[in-house]
Amino acid sequence: MRTRKTTTRKVKGRIAPSTNRVEKPFELPNGMWERISRKAYELWEQRGRQEGSSLRDWLDAEEIVMEEIHEARE
pLDDT tens per residue, the chain (74 residues)? Predict the structure, then answer.
């Protein structure tokens, strides 16, 4: 019988399983997660697919989407 090795990482003094998939930490209303995700991917492509810029891409995308929503409400 072959056992599967689980990769772990240390998080604030405790061991947590390492995951490579993106999990939604909280729910956003009415498809906002998908909208921000698509915009972040678009920004990533525009910036030359730079590794290590996913947080910046996400935060910029979030700002853009929120601004679009705000402008649409005016």
Answer: 555 554 544 545 555 444 455 566 666 677 888 999 999 999 999 999 999 999 999 999 999 999 998 898 88
Domain boundaries, the chain: 28-74
d(CA 34, CA 66): 13
Is this model's pTM higher than 0.85 or not?
Answer: no
Query: From CA 23, how far away is CA 40, in angstroms rounded?
Result: 15
Longest CA pairwise span in the chain (Å): 63
Cα four-point dihedral sign 9, 15, 21, 25: negative
